[in-house]
Design goal:
The chain is α+β, with helices and mostly antiparallel strands. It has helices at 32-37, 110-113, 131-154, 156-185, 192-211, 220-231, 237-258, 268-305, and strands spanning 2-4, 7-11, 15-16, 21-28, 43-45, 59-70, 73-82, 86-88, 93-95, 98-100, 105-108.
């Protein structure tokens, strides 16, 4: 069995860890087995042709082949990746009765090459422009949302009361505005009977929407006996006084309505309208505040109980 030391060429000449490298080994041999093996040209070999196993942690073999370069001249090509610095020794390779021995090769170190213990200083990961602002904005928004949820949870009943009261105020404001516009329209009515009819209908609808009581389906005499008796505990004294004054206007207009020969005094209709507007403002101001105080007190009591 013939042992051969080939002429080695390393490409590239200087190799570092992870480089793709090629070891070319040229030799001559009159072994007939080699001549027959390569008769069809380039022949692929495998790691099994090495007389002992190759340590994968040091060398990664990617390709091995043998080809003929002349009469009884051959070349072994080994493609590999080194994973260790320093001297690396390929095991001998056996082809038929021929054993090819390799010279050690040197794998260079980048740190030694540049005389540095580290290739470069550590650096933070690269970020897209304004990434830090976006992340900060997301964190800030999440904090605000969390605080808002906590606040709403704690102040839930007070917030419900606020929005309920806001809705009520808007409804009352709309009702007052419609009533004021209709009362202004009464100034054009000269006929007393027609004036009375429109005045009572306008004011009954206003009071019904304002106090949730069927004023349009009750007589004037029932206003005080039914409405005030059932709601006097919820109305302020100023509201009750304003309401009693309005009742006097209903009584006066009823008198004109049901007596054919009776009429308003001079400028009396204008005075009724002006006084009615004043009483409406008084009802709105006093009753709203009184109702808000009562509801707020009730909401506080319920929150304490919970």
């Amino acid at each position: 069995m013939a042992e051969i030391k080939p002429q080695q060429t390393l490409l590239p000449i200087q190799i570092f860890i992870g480089d793709n490298a090629e070891l070319n080994c040229s030799f001559s041999s009159n072994d007939e087995f080699l001549s027959l093996l390569i008769s069809k040209g380039r022949t692929q070999l495998s790691s099994e042709n090495f007389v002992r196993s190759v340590d994968d942690k040091e060398i990664e073999i990617t390709d091995i082949c043998i080809l003929q370069t002349g009469m009884d001249y051959y070349q072994i090509k080994i493609h590999f990746k080194p994973w260790k610095t320093g001297k690396i020794q390929f095991p001998p390779i056996k082809i038929g009765e021929t054993i090819v021995n390799f010279e050690p090769i040197n794998i260079s170190s980048l740190s030694e090459e540049f005389n540095e213990s580290s290739i470069q200083n550590t650096a933070p990961p690269l970020l897209l422009p304004y990434t830090s602002y976006i992340i900060g904005g997301i964190i800030f928004s999440s904090l605000i949302i969390s605080l808002a949820i906590i606040f709403i949870t704690i102040k839930r009943k007070q917030l419900l009361f606020y929005f309920k009261n806001l809705k009520l105020r808007l409804r009352y404001k709309k009702n007052k505005k419609i009533t004021m516009n209709r009362l202004r329209g009464l100034q054009k009515i000269e006929n007393d009977k027609a004036f009375v009819q429109e005045y009572q209908m306008i004011m009954r609808k206003y009071l019904e929407n304002r106090f949730d009581f069927p004023f349009t389906r009750n007589t004037t005499s029932q206003f005080s006996t039914v409405f005030l008796n059932n709601n006097k505990d919820f109305l302020s004294s100023q509201t009750q006084e304003a309401f009693f004054e309005l009742i006097t206007f209903f009584i006066r207009t009823d008198y004109i309505k049901y007596n054919a020969n009776k009429h308003f005094l001079e400028n009396e209709k204008q005075e009724i309208l002006e006084k009615t507007v004043t009483l409406i403002y008084s009802l709105e101001k006093n009753e709203v505040q009184c109702k808000e105080d009562a509801e707020y007190k009730s909401s506080l009591e319920n929150s304490y109980q919970d």
